[in-house]
Amino acid sequence: MPSPSSPQALVLLAVAVCFLARSSHVAAGGHPDYADALAKAILFFQGQRSGQLPPDQAVTWRSNSGLSDGSAANVDLTGGYYDGGDNAKFGFPMAFTTTMLSWGVLEHGGKMKARVHDARAAVRWGADYLLKAATQTPGALYVGVGDPDADHRCWERPEDMDTPRTVYAVSASAPGSDVAGETAAALAAASMVFRAADRAYSRRLLAAARGVMELAVRHQGKYSDFVGGDIGAYYQSYSGYKVVPESNRTSGINQTSSCGVGVAAAWATKNSSYLGYLYSLEDNDSVDMFSWDNKLAGARVLLSRRALVNGDKRLDPFRQQAEDFFCRILRDSPSSTTQYTLGRLMHKSGYANLQYVTSASFLLTTYAKYMAVTKHTFSCQSLPVTARSLRALAKQQVDYILGVNPKGMSYMVNFGARWPQRIHHRASSLPSVAAHPAHIGCQEGFQSYFYSSGANPNVHTGAVVGGPDEHDEFPDDRADYARSEPTTYTNAPLVGCLAYLAGTYRS
Fold first, then answer.
1. What is the number of domains present in the chain?
2. Residue 273 lies in a domain
3. What is the Cα–Cα distance from 130 to 213, expressed in whole angstroms?
4. CATH code where residue 355 lies
5. Active-site residue 107, yes or no?
6. Domain for residue 156, yes or no?
7. Of the listed 198, 399, 470, 476, which one is catalytic?
8. Catalytic residue at 476?
9. pLDDT for 207-226, tens place per residue?
10. Residue 1 placed within a domain
11. Which residues form the domain of 42?
């Protein structure tokens, strides 16, 4: 595995920048069993797979689905992941998911032990799809499959899909610098994951990243303004992209919402004309969230590694911005802008809040690693901050997710003594094809299963739901998608975070 300390790995990731038994899952040290949680967080991705499932598929209540995806455009877009509990495929969150899984493997793969093979398989399932999306039609990147409005009007298994599998793309005439930049990030990061294990595949990913980056920087625009089909209503690009002042431009390239993904990917592909441009990407915007839409905090943390570990003082402004992010999320920081529940969970949004918790926790553990290696400390005004400070906050947040909270409920399915039984997830809530071979229609799914008060018949092991509200309350209601739906971009950063914690707090 390539070391994430290499310039290529750092910049590639800067573009975007944890079984059926119901035991308590508390390790001997008194903390949750992070190794078990890690295995389950990775297994979740098998339940989200689209396409032809492999012979070693462990989540057996899922079957083949979406086997004609792409046919509407005469291309092959089979595979990839369903982002949450629906049956549409969205390129933007899938790219972020693949990037974060890759970063987790590169940064914390050494602590995953036997699970690193499964984590790489999760990366590859996403990367294979993105490679298809990026290379089948010159000058185009496919960014979605499935009419999202029609899909959301149905409650049916992926295996039974009969809604339109509309294909969406960005191109010169319908630009999408943001989604193209994030896709290039994912392809480039995945190429690092496989650089030692499969060099030919790694080279293909890197070549595709170059091509998508060209599209991102030559044809600029916010994808949700151009793609159509109301796809932007589901994953609108709120951050968009912004123009770098003329005096700072190199080769006419603009900054995207992925914090300079174009330049970073170009550097990673050994294009020396962008080296100087990297240092002109300083942005004074303060952020206190890290997500599929806004990657500034992640990019700053990653670039900080080179400033701290490698002593590259040209990147020191990014270190300062990364530390500003932590000052905005630390509970006791004088400059904190983050709300906490009485149970001490970060609360950033009423919709899928745990996605922001897992992504912040990943950054906390990753920066804590950098600080520990270099014995670095910093201050949030009067509050001194150490590696232990950041690690403690990440541990507290992950422990909350795993059941150390006022309700004593784990928000990871099939982990701990109590966990959500009625998650907002079509495949989980409907009987499997093996149990019910007959087709289940669009509205029949609502009438017979969605409105049922019973537990989901298929246990989606490892799925992390949206989580409790600002009062630590969780209704466990299938209809409450804001709190009960799991997503790939919630689990993806958790994988690396859990690996770090499993290696730090051993059973």
1. 1
2. yes
3. 13
4. 1.50.10.10
5. no
6. yes
7. 476
8. yes
9. 999 899 888 878 888 888 88
10. no
11. 7-504
